[in-house]
Design brief:
single chain; alpha/beta; five-stranded parallel sheet; 7 helices; 49% helix; 12% strand; elongated
Amino acid sequence: MALFLEFLSQEWILALALLVVGIMLVLHEARKSGPSVSPQQAINLINGESGVFLDLRDSADYKQGHIVEAMHIPAAKLATRMAELEKYRNKPIVLVCKMGQQSGAAGKQLKAGGFEKVYKMTGGMVEWSNLQLPVISKA
């Protein structure tokens, strides 16, 4: 640890440059998959612009509880079922997964497919449930 601290003190410019590049890389990757929105912001987007919630979870999780009128396309099948989203090409698509961490890859796929308004819901269904927002279950 002492050697690491000595290196940082002597090569602080190099360490700072590495930190800046790391931050820029993270921001660039996040931007490619679409901005993040809170559940409240997502509701406003969907209601205000006739968008859709896209639930990316597997069928078992979806049946346990999902957002009202959410479209269900599991993340693994998104590439083959992207045509189902065609009517939302110029409308907001809010990606929902279990905890808000898997929607980034789906966002990149949709952006690459020409979808303009792609958003990731922060916290996913865990946050939605924590806020006690309504869900429908298909038991």
